[in-house]
Specification:
The chain is mostly helical. It contains six helices and two strands. The longest helix is centred in the middle third of the chain and has 14 residues, at 58-71.
Length: 103
């Protein structure tokens, strides 16, 4: 179970704080981590489908992802399987903060 001190540690990073501004933000961090570990070909739609709690509407989720990309908290890269698809990953800074939180 996550303690309040662990949660505060996660909030110290401005990038992870941006994720936690949404009720599904912590779940999104776990999803992005899993996708990266599995080298998944996850775009915005795929990632949205993986959310199970507090799932937002697709349009609102797409806008939120774009905001995270604009701020540099998520990176997008072109899929090797489908050139029109962008793969989502946590930025290095956010990934480092999330790993420290889980340790």
């Amino acid at each position: 179970m996550m303690s309040y001190d662990e949660y505060k540690k996660l909030l110290e990073n401005v990038g992870t704080r941006a994720f936690l501004a949404k009720p599904y933000g912590l779940e999104l961090l776990f999803i992005l981590e899993r996708c990266e570990l599995e080298s998944a070909d996850n775009g915005v739609e795929d990632t949205h489908e993986l959310l199970t709690q507090f799932k937002p509407r697709r349009g609102a989720f797409s806008t939120y992802i774009q905001d995270l990309c604009t701020c540099g908290y998520i990176t997008k890269s072109t899929s090797g399987l489908k050139a029109s698809k962008s793969i989502l990953r946590m930025s290095t800074d956010v990934g480092t903060a999330f790993k420290a939180f889980k340790a």
